[in-house]
Amino acid sequence: MIQAVGWDLDDTLYDRNLPYLAVYQYMEENVIETGIGFETFNYFYQMNSDIEFRRYTDGQASVDQYRNNRVLMTYAQFGFTIKKQDAILFNQKYEEAKEDIVLRPGAKDCLDLLQKAGLKQFLLTNGPAQQAHKVDLLGLEDYFDDKNIFISSQMGAAKPASEIFQKVEEALELNSATTLYIGDNYEADMKGASNAGWQGLFLNVHDKSVEDVSDKIIICKDMDDIYKSLISKLEEKK
């Protein structure tokens, strides 16, 4: 049984790889040609981004340092030295490409399903305050407003810390046992939600292998799977 559903944002409601692919192609064509395939480059870039984001949330780096260091580190791992100005350019191009983000196919159907069922929906995302702008870009105003958008940089904690899930519970007066969270990152989203007593739908778009899956977590490969799982959860409510 579920009464409230929370959504992750990046790589869940939209495909974060698409704007990064545009940036990667720009850099290869105009700044430095590495010859590294996008999937390989992006794998290490996202890994470095997670590392630097943790430093940022721990107060060890500014938001600019976090953004620039993840770029510099990634190129360095492949034996390429780029200037700080190139890292700044990388991030500028990402901000431009990000303006063209769109919902994943099937995401709107899931949002509409929950809205028609009368369930409370909210966003819980790691990142800087600018995450809120993506709500506008994706046309999500009908589903989320300021009261049900939670961004880690504004909350003093980041997923998977139990603290951030507890703060959402308190703000929205949720019952942990009837709260469901949907996300693409098993460590941050699913383990965090499970530790908070929430149920979870793991959108495994990166085809990650996971072990010791909690019985509160259902693994889904795409939004069609998410939709079917939501239907099943709503049937439990009746």
Automatic annotation (TrEMBL):
Sample GO molecular function, one term: phosphatase activity
GO biological process, one term: small molecule metabolic process
Keywords carried by this UniProt record: Hydrolase, Magnesium, Metal-binding
Gene3D superfamilies, per database record: HAD superfamily/HAD-like, Putative phosphatase, domain 2
Stored SUPFAM superfamilies: HAD-like
Cofactor: Mg(2+)
Record flagged with keyword Magnesium: yes
KW 4Fe-4S (keyword) present: no
PANTHER family: GLYCERALDEHYDE 3-PHOSPHATE PHOSPHATASE, N-ACYLNEURAMINATE-9-PHOSPHATASE
NCBIfam families (UniProt xref): HAD-SF-IA-v1, HAD-SF-IA-v3
The protein's name in its UniProt record: HAD family hydrolase
Annotated source species: Aerococcus urinae
